[in-house]
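Weekly puzzle thread! Below is a chain. First person to post its structure in token form gets bragging rights.
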Amino acid sequence: MVDIEKNTILFYEELEKKNCDYEKLLLISKKGIHLNEVLFNNENIKNHEYLVDISFYNNQFIYIRNEKQYLRLKSLLNDFLEPLIIFNNCFISFLLKETDIDFLQNFRCLYEPDLTIYLLYKHEEKYLENNYISHKVFNLFQPKGLQVSSVIYIFIHDYFLYENHKINLNSISKYINKTLLINMIINKFGSNKKILDYIINNLDEKVYSFSDFSRIPMNYSIDEMYRKYERNAKYKSIIDKYFGEPYYEIKYEVINDNYEERYKIEKKTYNNYNKDEIWFGNKDLFPRIYGILDNYNLYDESNNRYNYYKKQCEKFVKKYLNYKLESILNDPYKIFKISGKYRYNLTYKCMVQISFIIALLYNKAPLYIILTLISLSDFNYIYENGTLNFDLRYYEENIYFFPLECAIYDTLNSIEEFNFNSFVSVHKSYNCFHSY
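Winning reply:
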């Protein structure tokens, strides 16, 4: 018996004690264990802060139940490790109270905005007291497309943790190559035995392994898998073909010895998914929200010319913002009530987006919500020192890199009522009201 298996036995023996020693559990875990299940349901440790450490470093989902656990998680985050977090009500509540801009920027890099807007929207009616990601907000800021990694995370999060079985692997494989899909799931979530069992039950001859040793990696003993499926010849054969030994006893054998041919297969597979179909309006991928999303039919006749955008922005201000700025600032959702044509006009949509975000800033809404929505906006700007900063530097004099952004900034900067323009700033090299 190797050390990691001995450590695993010692870990569970300690965990099962009525008054287990948490320091000892953490020490054993750091030496290396086979943790192939979530710990957050275990009564002995589910409320302790070390649940975060042990789950974090063993690539298991973390369920935050108290402030100590949240602060522990916050202290462990860095640019290199991405924790598997369940977006439950407690965690979201702490995240929305967070004011540490550096932490939030880092967290936003770990969890892409197209993923978090969905996870926050899931809690819209049932969980959150302050409904910042409502149906209207989700509609306005929903991304045009999704990353494959985000689709997979949502699938795992909903299917295994919230038991939403309306979507399954076959639903997703209509749009994402099954080999790519399974390899990405295994590489990210393969430590979880429940998920691994699901994958084994859905493997077939067409699935190809992308692991470093031409095998799908396992995070615990292959002998345990043999014992589990010893009466099923099909599953044992699948294990033999696709799964290698754990990292400490790798057998250097490959399924396909032709490296160049294998590389071509991998490259082709990674690009084999339908980008246009991977969005929140896809019924197969997101049945829960299908049918309630607006189908935008945006037109843009500008040919990227500043003058066109500027006229559109000024028209929007005259029609929707004049004499209504105070009410919009006091009620962020007011902008949705007074402007209905943004579904058909790109400039109008961008103006509604930034008007809503300015109102959120004015009302001191959660910073994480603001950062997420900025990332999902249809034009380029960033949050900086409490304002929306437009970086509008241009390559040559009077030739602008972002004509739409220039037009939006110039228009907003001309509004003086209620200090509306105090929420926008610009890079110092920009000269306003130039056109081409």
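Puzzle host: Confirmed. Bonus trivia for everyone else. The longest strand covers residues 387-390.
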